[in-house]
Amino acid sequence: MGAFVARLSYPAARRSDVVEDLFGFPVSDPYRWLEDGDDACVQDWAAAQDRLFQTHRTGWHEKQSWASLVDQVSSFGVSEPPMARGSVMFLAEQLRGDEQQRLLVVDAEGNRRVLVDPVEIDPSGHTGLYAWWPSREGERVAVQMEVAEQPGSDIMVLDVRTGEVVDGPLPRARNTSLAWLPGGDAFYYVSRVPDEELAPGDLRLHRRVRLHRIGSPWQADTVVFGGDDAPDHYYGLTVSADGRHLAITATSGPASHNDVYVAELVDPEAPQFVKIVDGPAIRARTLPRFLADGDLLLVTDYQAPCGRICTAHRHDTDPAAWRTLVAEDPEAPLDECLVLDDPALAQPLLLVARTRHGSSALTLHDLASGRMLGELPLPGAGVVSSLRTTIPHGRHAWFSYCDATTPPTIYRYDATSGKTEQEAGATTAGHTPEIRSRSVRYRAGDGTEITLFLFTPAEEDQGPRPTLLYGYGSFGMPMRPWFSPMAAAWVGAGGTYAVACVRGGGEEGQRWHDAGRGPHKHRAVSDFNDAATWLIDTGRTTRDQLAIHGQSGGGLLVTAAATQRPDLYAAVIAEGPLCDMVRYEHFGLGCTWTDEFGTASQSEQLQWLLSYSPYHNVTPGAPYPAFLFAGAETDLQTGEAHVTKMCAALQHATSSDRPILMRREPDTAHAAFPASKERALAADILAFAGKYTGLSLETTTTRIHETAAEAH
């Protein structure tokens, strides 16, 4: 299988003798010098890595075929439900050939017009539509654009009727939340403290909640919440339908618990907050929304790791006073819920989405009693997401549905008639291959049962196939059997695509997350290696046919898995990974993630990190699989030093003839690319994985074109 007989020649990277004494423990860091991306030596080394990658890529003879297959199975159109405000709807659309999605407005007669087209603003395609928040009357919309890996993220306010900018830019609003007051003349939003007010090199978030009045300069925006005592807090904002109350959720980094504060808006400039939920004290996540009478609907995992829905008086500070409306189902974690309380309805309703082993269910409940009234029919055993309704009061619910072979499709449920109808949706450019999708359960080393989604060609025969195994396993993020162009292309070429729902994710609720974070993060890694072992032991694939792929936290997962068990894998693809877990707090937003991983500044937690940190577990002389590290040249999220240091360490250590490569991308973000770059990256990943697992398109493209012809 090896492409070269002799050990490969790599760009020279000096190994320094940096060894830090951490709590009496010597921690070696020979590539510390690569952390300085502005250093000329680092830039020369990185440029040599770019040339090495280009040389190898020219040898991937099927890359063009993969690119055209990815193009065929990529989806275009509308993939998210609309936001309905007043008599208008706002929706995003991305057509074939578009680099970015554009924002449309649809009037009561169904006429559509483009409100924001990012490519008109920036023809290079590097500016994207990041978020939009229409006022509740639908007359104005706050829009946030994101320029690839620039920390700006300004907010502009547009007049919906004319499309003209009426206010902004409001600066430093990256990862903001925004809540309009009725009337559309003011909103609350979150922005970072100006850099000049911070100590040099301070990477913390330093966010404040501010009130902005349309037409007034941003410098005059009043800070209503947040201070120096909460440097790493994220804030979520909700205003009641009548505009009389504001709720704020406060979360330290991506912690699995949050505080909730509620204020009466007698004076919007100076709300007096009552802390009704103390997240660290009850160790729970709680999301509030206001009911028509000003009381609260709380979605929480307090005393319910898979989630329950409660009601509470807005001044209840004791969780014992919460009334359970919809109880926890320990087999089906709660995803989201939606209140339908249009006066035209016989009674206010609650729509609840849950997921049982990867498949969604939508149930309808009486809002007053929580009693279940029925289940909404779904097109298949797929995934429901993004429940939305008209604000402030709705009788329609929109949601997105997809499965392994169905791109996101938008459905509308009418609570007055009880009917659910398909409204819009994305389509693929070509013919989606026939994919067989199912979930199986495998046992981890400690006996825990873990879900594995398998996507295989419909005419599946027995016998091993080239397999691409994906995982994430961090921050309580659940894996689902979503539609994925990469999976569709891989299976279309005759391979098996698998997704392991390892601990550290949220597939089985908060308990599942807790079982794979902090001191238990090593379990996510061993669960993933156990998934690989199961695929090999059951004859579905072989070591020489197995590639693994992960992004961000999933990049950490696959890199750690491969440094622990290099014998299991033929190839590893890590996008924007974390690799140096001793220094991750010094890069990007790493300092805000200690709740998930732990901190190297504490002796015991340093040992957790060292036990699986990929960079610290590279073994000289080990025969490592082929590695492809993909990442942005500037990564504000994880920091690009993870990729450079890990790449250098593996190139120095490996004894195998399989290459260790680095694919750097200028002018892109941690995860949001223009569409053409997104597809080019997918084609490179598939070509690389195909080359080192033996999946060839030569025999399969004819078959795909034949089935496409039959379908037409």
UniProtKB/TrEMBL annotation:
EC numbers: 3.4.21.26
GO biological process: proteolysis
Keyword annotations: Hydrolase, Protease, Serine protease
Any one of the GO CC terms: cytosol
Listed GO MF terms: oligopeptidase activity; serine-type endopeptidase activity
Peptidase S9A N-terminal domain ranges (all copies): 11-421
Domain Peptidase S9 prolyl oligopeptidase catalytic span(s) in chain numbering: 482-694
Name by which UniProt lists this protein: prolyl oligopeptidase
Catalysed reactions, as listed in the record: Hydrolysis of Pro-|-Xaa >> Ala-|-Xaa in oligopeptides
Superkingdom of source: Bacteria
Family in the record: Belongs to the peptidase S9A family.
InterPro entries linked to this entry: AB_hydrolase_fold (IPR029058), Pept_S9_AS (IPR002471), Pept_S9A_N (IPR023302), Peptidase_S9_cat (IPR001375), Peptidase_S9A (IPR002470), Prolyl_oligopep/macrocyclase (IPR051167)
